[in-house]
Amino acid sequence: MRRFAFIIHPLRFDDFARKYGFTRYLPPKLVEWAFKQVGPVMAGHVTGVRSPAGEELEGWLIGLPLTPEIILSSPYDWVLRKLTAAGELAERLGAEIVGLGAFTKIAGDRGISLAKNLHIPVTTGNSYTTATAVEGTLAAAREMGISVKDAATTVIGATGSIGRAASFELAEQVKQLTLVARTPEKLEALRQDLLTRHPHLDVKVTTDIPGAVRPADIVIAVSSATGAIVDPDDLKPGAVITDVARPRNLSRVVTERRPDVLVLDGGVIQVPGESADMGFDFGFPPKMVEACMAETMILALEGRLENFTIGPSIATEKVREIHRLGSKHGFKLAGFRRFERAIDNRELDRIRQAAAERLRITG
Fold it and tell me: How buried is residue 52: exposed, middle or buried, by Cβ count under 10 Å (0-12/13-18/19+)?
């Protein structure tokens, strides 16, 4: 039996009320202050995961009651102490490796300092997140009748760890790539790195999200912004947009106002094992988790007890390796989903028809 742990935290203030109902009657600032004083807790027990290769797995979800705003606005030394306490709880429970969820992997140096403080390895899960986000996006584009090779493709948050890695993965399959981020200097450096490996790639860089999105057939959004940043009116009819970011870069308004666009959740993974129980309500159907948690599980099953994905950059080789290991152990994309709901063939047909109609009307 292999063992892992995964650190989670509330993505929105409302998440406190899902767990502690009384908090909805209190001032938000008071609730956030109170939970800053609270240490990590065991939030769930994962059981019944079984690889086709024969290994079994159990795990623990370690909860830190900190919103993204608290994590990003607090001194990193304080956040690191909180994360270390969570990792030490994972060690006491018997975990052999610990993964970082949501904004715990963005804070500070993305797991490097935490790994030095613990006796078990750490991973952010960003390699498998990258692999499955690109895999799912390109599969969806083909379903929408988009020629991937010729598609205008945009990555929002391109200079972040996942955005950068996704850009290199996409560069293998597309001809046109537009990179969006806040810092022009970082964007230009990434552009030059891409052109070194792919000299015939048409690479543009910009800080203008609407301008990058409007002509795009394919969009991958992975910005670390804490709110929605894509305007529904900026999307091209028939476009595919995958929202990898948590909190989301897109709001539900996009699907309400643009039935002609295919919006996808990034990296929702089906876990192997007939009786697999994730021990926590992530808002998904049973046996489904985010790709970053799946990476931690895959590494535990494989016995790869190492700091696999930490720091600000992701090696292309690791993206491909974890994808291969995921397949070996029976992990796979959970079809196409948006806002935790499956998209079936009938809905795909409706989106394609709405896109064709909008293009007919707009010319």
Answer: exposed
- Rounded-to-integer distance, Cα 120 and Cα 125, Å: 15
pLDDT tens for residues 181-230? 999 999 999 999 999 999 999 999 999 999 999 999 999 999 988 778 99
Separation CA 54–CA 1 (nearest Å) = 10
Q: For 130-142, what is the mean pLDDT?
A: 97
φ, ψ at 182 (rounded to 5°): -80, -30
Query: Which residues neighbour 313 within 8 Å (Cβ) at sequence distance 6 or greater?
Result: 161, 164, 165
- φ, ψ for residue 48, nearest 5 deg: 75, 10
The ranges assigned to domains in the chain are 2-127+269-333, 130-268+337-362
DSSP code string of 28-89: HHHHHHHHHT---EEEEEEEEEE-TTS-EEEEEEEE----HHHHHHS-HHHHHHHHHHHHHH
Among 286, 285, 249, smallest CA distance to 266 is for: 249
Q: Are 204 and 152 in contact (CB under 8 A)?
A: no
Q: Does domain 130-268+337-362 have CATH number 3.40.50.720?
A: yes
pTM of the full structure: 0.91
